[in-house]
Amino acid sequence: MPETPTIPDSPATAPLLRLSGLEQVFDTKRGKVPAVSGVDLKVEAGKVLCLVGESGCGKTTTARAAAGLTRPTGGSVEYLGHDIHRMGAAEWQEYREAVQYIHQDPYASLNPVRTVLSSLTAGLRKHKKVKGRHEARQAAARLLEQVELTPAESYLDKYPHQLSGGQRQRVAVARALAMNPKLLIADESTSMLDVSIRVSLLNTLGGLRDDLGVGFMFITHDLAVAKYFAWDGEIAVMYLGKVVEHGPTPQVINDPQHPYTKALIAAVCEPDPRLARSKKTIPLRSAEIPSLTALPSGCTFHPRCPLAESGDCDTTPPTLAPLDERRRLACHVVARDHVAAQAGTG
Questions:
Q1: Which of 97, 248, 261, 268 could disulfide-link to 179, CB 3.0 to 4.6 Å?
Q2: Run of H or E residues at 236
Q3: Residues in Cβ contact with 280 at an 8 Å cutoff, skipping those fewer than 6 apart
Q4: pLDDT tens digits along 98-155
Q5: Angle 337-280-300 from CA coordinates, rounded to 5°
């Protein structure tokens, strides 16, 4: 049966950001490294999409491609229905202002020889959004107030080394807000902060989402952080460059379907000793993560998967297919059992 042709979204109905078949292959001395393979995701205006997974699974590579910082080797990145790498100069400028990136390390992302005022107003001055020093200073003060660094005047003339880690990261967030973005891509932006500061910053980011309608692509390896920040959004679980489960956060957290997602959730520390003793563990077949330069055949998770079966799992890569109305899954065994269960109740 011939496939139905895909009708492209119009700018009015298109999501804020769409990744279609995104691929990123790096050439190294050890051979080609497929860091990202066929990722299909979208972020709607004012919504949160969390990318979660172990270190090295492709989260940051996906985020950098989404921000236009790298050009993917395959697939496309679309902003409001337009491929960003086919945009004209004016469209590209609009996209670069609308999509801002918050880096992981607040100690490295700020220029050490620039004051907070200089860092916050560099973009505003470059794009002629302020006139004169007084207007620039007022704009910088408003940005600091948005991220709850008050009184703003006490921070404007400080250098990064005079700030704590949490204060630096808030300055980085304020800098990202300077262009009035529609989407913030936060790459592990709370992972280097103390727990109490982390929660405070997450609350600030949540306030920006609710008050300004800013969309988020939030990258984290911590499912507890994903649950806290994106409860009303979606989670996409990545493993070795591919999305293996994607759906609304409550469903993914409370009722995970993919064996890898179950293993991630089982690995989250439980502070209550009674709950910890009753918590189910997921016995993986191996703790070793395969190398991206020598990926296993079939499903790349099958050497570690407790549900792996010979035949399909070790020969045929699973596709990320709809499991129900809002969830997608890439697992031969779970998909087969789900279809059988649906047929039994039908």
A1: 97
A2: strand 234-239
A3: 266
A4: 999 998 888 888 999 999 999 999 999 988 888 889 999 999 999 999 988 999 999 9
A5: 50
